[in-house]
Amino acid sequence: MELTDPALEDIELELFVRALRQRHGYDFGLYAPASLRRRVRQLVQTHGTGTISALTGRLLHEPEFVFDVIEGLSVPVSDMFRDPPVFRALREQVLPLLASWPRINIWQAGCASGQEVYSLAILLEEEGLYERCQIYATDFNPAALRRAREGIYPARAAQAWSRNYLAAGGCHSLADYYSARYEFIKLDQRLRRNVSFANHNLVTDKVFCEAQLVLCRNVLIYFANPLQDRVLALFSDSLVRGGVLCLGLRESLEFAPSAADFTAVEADLRIYRRNVFCSPDGKA
Amino acid sequence: MARLEAIVIGCSAGGPGALKTVLRALAPPLPLPVVVCSHSGESGTDLLVPLLARHARLPVREARERWPVQAGIIHLAPPGYHLLIERDRCFAYSVDAPVHYSRPSIDVLFESAAEAYGERLAGVMLTGASPDGAQGLARIRHAGGLAIVQDPAEALAPAMPQAALDQAGADHCLPLARIAPLLNELVHRE
Q: How high is the ipTM of this complex?
């Protein structure tokens, strides 16, 4: 790969981000820069444009190209029951809390290709709560949402996912929930019956439901501090009092003002509960 | 030569042993941070941090998301995440796809460190059986930083230092035992 002069690349990157925002309404201005730069460089390679400026040109003049760009910039990577101790804690500690509500709204923010949505549905099914639940699974990448709806994944992942499932306290076999065909597995589409997949952009869209549980794992790591703070405030506003927030295993809340709205249920597993009482500044 | 402000180290197969040798000989007080990316599987730093802490004369910690890269500390990339350094010299994580089957990836760490530190960075490639890190080391050199590669002839797994030499070349290609003394000398040079 040809190495470019960093100052020149900075200008190109700025113009690229501006084109995405002004032409297409996607705002990456507050993304953590190092990962964003890396992903944009990968887009240059994937599409063989040579420079970021040439990507920008296509972005401005070819309306459909934005979907390729969004796909490249969101790079959704996940596993079923990723970090089994988290799912075990959801099963053993969080679901019993949620059971006190007659209706349970769950928002999976940044659901990518849906692996965690199906994991969650299985958990709810096994704990007897699923019929009372509505899961909103959102992402800003339409291609990822399509894959999430289909629930088709490479079969080579199934073995590791089965191990995760059992480590997360699964009481059956993960294979009970999918059918295998050739190199793929397809998740039982009955698991989707209370799931609404919807396009939602954490950067620009607002609160859309009142939730008892918000899961957003390994999304905030891509956001610079001001955007992280804003999105955490959005989660806080979306949660009912006493509602639960679950973040990625190594995401840190320490620097965020909204941290004051939450109390840890399991600090090491990044599971928090929205405080029942108002914070001193009067904000709920 | 510009004064160094950070050292990044990459290793894979045979890495823990090689790291012990290097970190044991790094002399405190160290006026700059050391950031290590070791391919160590999913168990990763849970085992590696205490192991290295027993041998290093400096504190060894897992690098923490959003926290500043701190001088005098050996920071380890967490298992399952890429570790990056932002230009404001704070750590960032990503779960982007593995690079050369590895996450964390040495390329990802080295490239971002090259952006953050430019010519004030030394990249060290140790033993390993993967091409990961070679492109990152090339970036470090291109930005004016220093490349130090363990001599493949004596590395437990020669593929990684060899790939680094082939793709990036090196300012110093040394046996393991001479790497820490060189770093001590570079760091404490006025």
A: 0.93
